[in-house]
């Protein structure tokens, strides 16, 4: 769903202002916090991350302002957006980078001005970071797949890992293998360039042909890959689809879960992430003493497994998707059977 993993070894000094506290809705001298996001491929930045982040900042500091910019996938544009924010007097930058090269340059520019940078939603080995525990995602997927398969002691699975150049591809793959190796027979394993649905469909078709349609489960790294796997199995006329994993909680994946075509996906609670990033940015801007839990500079938000049983308590409860979003005409019967309508 994103771009290359961000890991840049850049040291930067942070010169913070006088210490204070962060009570709710306190009127304090204004600060400027830049919130720079990478692209528009996912609507979440505009519909969730941005409004939640801004609301959290305003709840703590009525006089603070958020400089929000979307790079639309252009690393050069993101670097310019960062330079403009620094020139405008940004006290903190919260950065979800387009790529590592651009991020390194932004970190260097910020360091020269003694402005702290919080990397956001993008695995980082440098400085402050707020995002999701990617290793936990692989563990959730593997655990769900093992629990769902009604098969022999060592079931046969196909693994579709998604784009090998993805920013967290290696972390996710290692976590999944760590949880599945020795417990399943991996009959076929693929990396799907660009995590495309078409690519996954072709790979799954090859696997089904080789296995004569006999497969107990499908590990799909994300929902795009899962969609291709499901299409391939339907075209192969499997009477019953084996459990299929996913990640990202895309609307189409949630609908496949309702329909019984996909077993699970992984939901990242965006509100928790955005609010945690806003809180950390505020604390850095005002020199608030950070809690001991932040001694390593990282806030890891735990992802959540979503199945048919937990849809209401996860993505619907958080407002990530509504019943109206999910229960379109094509899924009316499935939604009724699931108790959503």
Task: Give me a quick take on this structure.
The protein is of the alpha/beta class and 341 residues long.
Q: What does this protein structure show overall?
A:
This protein is α/β, with parallel strands linked by helices and 341 residues long. It contains twelve helices and eleven strands. The chain folds into two domains: 32-133 and 269-301, Rossmann fold; 134-267 and 304-337, Response regulator (Rossmann fold), CATH 3.40.50.2300. The chain has helices at residues 44-60, 75-87, 100-112, 134-148, 169-180, 197-211, 223-235, 251-259, 270-286, 312-316, 323-326, 332-337; strands at residues 32-37, 65-70, 92-95, 117-120, 128-132, 156-160, 185-190, 217-220, 265-267, 298-301, 304-306. The longest helix is centred in the first third of the chain and has 17 residues, at 44-60. The chain is elongated and about 65 Å long. 45% of the residues are buried.
Beta-strand content estimate: 5-15%
Number of domains: 2
CATH architecture of the largest domain: 3-Layer(aba) Sandwich
Helical segment count: 12
What is the strand arrangement across the widest sheet? Answer: 2-1-3-4-5-10
CATH C-level class of the largest domain is Alpha Beta
Mind telling me the C-alpha Rg? 22 Å
State the major sheet.
6 strands, parallel
Based on Cα principal axes, name the global outline.
Answer: elongated
Sketch the topology as an H/E string, one letter per element: EHEHEHEEHEHEHEHHEHEEHHH
**Low-confidence runs of at least 5 consecutive residues:** 1-28
Structural class category: alpha/beta
Number of strands: 11
Q: CATH superfamily of the largest domain, called what?
A: Response regulator
Average pLDDT confidence is 88
Distance between the termini: 30 Å
Kindly report the CATH topology of the largest domain: Rossmann fold
């Amino acid at each position: 769903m994103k771009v290359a993993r961000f890991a840049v070894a850049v040291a930067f000094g942070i010169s913070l202002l006088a210490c204070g506290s962060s009570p709710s809705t306190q009127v304090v001298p204004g600060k400027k916090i830049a919130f720079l996001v990478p692209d528009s491929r996912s609507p979440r930045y505009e519909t969730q991350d941005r409004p939640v982040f801004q609301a959290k900042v305003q709840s703590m500091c009525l006089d603070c302002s958020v400089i929000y910019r979307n790079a639309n996938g252009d690393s050069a544009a993101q670097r310019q957006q960062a330079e403009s924010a620094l020139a405008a007097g940004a006290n903190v930058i919260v950065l979800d980078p387009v790529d590592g090269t651009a991020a390194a340059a932004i970190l260097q520019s910020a360091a020269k001005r003694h402005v702290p940078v919080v990397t956001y939603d993008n695995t980082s080995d440098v400085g402050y970071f707020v995002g999701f525990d990617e290793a936990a995602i692989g563990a959730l997927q593997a655990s769900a797949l093992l629990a769902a398969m009604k098969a022999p002691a060592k079931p046969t699975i196909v693994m579709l890992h998604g784009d090998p150049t993805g920013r967290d591809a290696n972390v996710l793959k290692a976590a999944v293998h760590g949880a599945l190796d020795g417990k399943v027979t991996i009959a076929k394993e693929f990396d799907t360039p660009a995590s495309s649905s078409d690519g996954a469909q072709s790979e799954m078709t090859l696997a089904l042909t080789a296995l004569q349609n006999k497969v107990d489960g499908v590990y799909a790294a994300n929902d795009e890959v899962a969609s291709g796997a499901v299409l391939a199995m339907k075209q192969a006329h499997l009477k019953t689809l084996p459990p299929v994993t996913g990640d990202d909680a895309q609307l189409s994946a949630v609908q496949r879960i309702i329909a019984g075509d996909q077993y699970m996906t992984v939901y990242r609670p965006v509100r928790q992430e955005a609010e945690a990033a806003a809180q950390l940015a505020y604390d850095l801007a005002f020199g608030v003493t950070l809690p001991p839990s932040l001694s390593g500079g990282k806030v890891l938000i735990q992802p959540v497994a979503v199945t048919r049983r937990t849809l209401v308590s996860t993505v619907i409860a958080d407002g990530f998707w509504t019943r109206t979003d999910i229960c379109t005409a094509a899924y009316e019967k499935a939604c009724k059977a699931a108790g959503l309508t």
